[in-house]
Design brief:
Layout lengths: L3 H16 L20 H15 L5 H4 L5 H11 L1
Helix pairs in contact: 1-2, 1-4
Length: about 80
């Protein structure tokens, strides 16, 4: 099972692939919208990639609540 650091590193790679944000910029405390400039369309693409990569399901209403990278890492960790 992956730990939070592994999840964060993989998530950073996904964000870099989908949104073009350097993976080094993707840290747990960063807000997707405010700090990383990720709009709702890119967030949908990231969510789909996360669901595929981590084999998790993120309902739309729950996805809207995941404001920071750390929120998403925590969700993935709790899901597994």
């Amino acid at each position: 099972m992956a730990n939070d650091t592994d999840i964060l590193n993989t998530l950073a790679k996904i964000v870099e692939e989908v949104a073009g944000v350097a993976s080094a910029e993707v840290t747990a405390e960063k807000s997707f919208t405010d700090d990383l400039d990720i709009d709702s369309l890119l967030m949908v693409e990231i969510t789909v990639a996360v669901e595929d990569r981590f084999e998790v399901q993120i309902p739309d209403e729950r996805s809207a609540e995941l404001k920071t990278v750390g929120d998403l890492v925590g969700y993935i960790a709790d899901y597994r």
